């Protein structure tokens, strides 16, 4: 799937990973992808978010509030590093050699996995690409994938009740007073305009 991503879309995912790690999270959620999107102002998704009043600073603050309120605490990567050290693997030495080989800061360990909700948003992203007859996935498709979480019922919850369940990214946008329902038409208008 990632071979279909444009360079800006790949950059968004790198920014999301960096954001997750900077916040001490051992996962990448829709909230981290949203920060990556907002941090790309030269893209349709970044411009739509900016024009809606979304800033990276406001996102970070609200993400922290939402996660703390839900009981999520930063854990960092220390546990994995300590586990590897216990079997004789020096992550710092690996990092030093990777910096020498690939350039400073190119190596991150561990790479946090996507949450189930973020994976679902990526599935929605792929659907958005197909529905819009695109050959590649850009940042705009990633934003549409996150927004699709607000539009589609979650069949797996409450015994298949079909109640809409939002990811943290959409919840954060709503908490910031953003009209989430207006974002999709704004993205589509810029894509076709």
From TrEMBL:
One of its GO terms (molecular function) is peptidase activity. GO terms for biological process: proteolysis. The keyword Repeat applies. Residues 2-193 form the Clp R domain. Pfam families: Clp_N. The keyword Hydrolase applies. Keywords: Hydrolase, Protease, Repeat. It comes from the Bacteria. Signal peptide: none annotated. PANTHER family: ATP-DEPENDENT CLP PROTEASE ATP-BINDING SUBUNIT CLPT1, CHLOROPLASTIC, CLP DOMAIN SUPERFAMILY PROTEIN. This is Clp protease N-terminal domain-containing protein. It comes from Kutzneria chonburiensis.
């Amino acid at each position: 799937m990632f071979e279909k991503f444009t360079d800006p879309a790949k950059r968004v995912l790198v920014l999301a990973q960096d954001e997750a790690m900077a916040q001490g999270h051992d996962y990448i959620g829709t909230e981290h992808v949203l920060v990556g999107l907002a941090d790309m102002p030269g893209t349709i998704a970044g411009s739509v978010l900016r024009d809606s009043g979304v800033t990276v600073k406001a996102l970070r603050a609200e993400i922290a509030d939402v996660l703390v309120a839900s009981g999520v605490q930063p854990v960092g990567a220390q546990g994995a590093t300590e586990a590897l050290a216990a079997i004789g693997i020096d992550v710092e030495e690996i990092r030093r050699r990777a910096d020498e080989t690939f350039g400073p800061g190119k190596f991150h360990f561990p790479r946090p996995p996507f949450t189930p909700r973020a994976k679902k948003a990526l599935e929605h992203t792929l659907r958005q690409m197909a529905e819009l007859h695109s050959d590649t996935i850009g940042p705009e498709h990633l934003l549409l994938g996150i927004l699709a979480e607000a539009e589609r019922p979650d069949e797996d919850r409450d015994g298949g009740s079909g109640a809409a369940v939002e990811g943290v990214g959409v919840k954060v946008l709503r908490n910031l007073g953003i009209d989430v329902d207006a974002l999709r038409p704004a993205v589509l208008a810029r894509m076709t305009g």
